[in-house]
Amino acid sequence: MTTDDHKSMNLAQFLKWAGAASTGGEAKLIIQDGLVTVNGETETRRGRKLVEGDSVIVQGKTYKVELD
Fold this sequence. Notes:
Elements: E1 9-10, H1 11-18, H2 24-32, E2 36-38, E3 41-42, E4 49-50, E5 55-58, E6 61-64
Antiparallel strand pairs: 1-4, 2-3, 2-5, 5-6
Helix pairs in contact: 1-2
């Protein structure tokens, strides 16, 4: 991997991976309903790319993005 490569994950995938949503459909609804903030701002795009260190809050629970 070169230094220009960046790891990322889209928001809907992250919500499923973190256990904040059990399905992609549920993740979509949570995001569309404005229940998710990324780095302090409400996010309604399920394709939003998350990178290492981002902070995601879903219904009061905070998740820190850590990609290996």
